[in-house]
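Give me structure tokens for this 242-residue protein.
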Amino acid sequence: MKLQNYDLNFLEEFKEVEIDNKITPLICAASLGRLECTKLLLDNKTIDVNMPSDEYQCTPLGVACAAGNLEIVRLLLERNADVNKRANFEQLPLTLCFTRFHEEVNAYENQLICMKMAEMLLQRGADIDVVVDEDKGHTLLMQYCATKIQLSETQRRANKKLVQFFLAHGANPERKSKKGKTAVELAEKHCNKAEIQELLRSEKQSYFYESRYFQPSLPFTDEKSSEPSLWNFFCGKFRWCS
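Here you go.
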């Protein structure tokens, strides 16, 4: 069966992947880290790399970032996946890159993967100063500086590393929230206040990204295939259900 000849832009229930009620084959592959399957799906010239899931509007890029599937993120970006497409709850691929950053198991590896994915998104036009909390007007930098809960030593180190990462990649520490507070002011109640505020005052940008403009992803066909659903074929061929 040649998948290049079929319309693969469809939504279907897949209970083993707890992302949404219905997802696309590409979202399923991106979430489960099925690299070869992702390559096969992307070989289909009509595939819509940005087609979201049913209710939560999750994209293949977003779920790959959340799962830490670095090579799949790279493949999707090569196909011009939209780095600024939001899911419900205003979640962006850049935000989702840091989902696993505070995990204590394999912490070093997880953090490297998270930062590498974020760098790739920034190279493709993601905004380091994008507002991730519309109600408060907080950017990612502000969000991590405004942390008020008590953190463990491991969490403190991870939090500081993220603040340093954002600053090194161009986050603006002088930007103000909706209440008119800068990141330094938001860090007043941080459990690691002294180190975070020192970083905000002294850390300089060391990575610079040029503005880039990308061609839109290849359009997907509006024609409905007369073939039955290919979902069972995918599950059987790539053993997603195992």
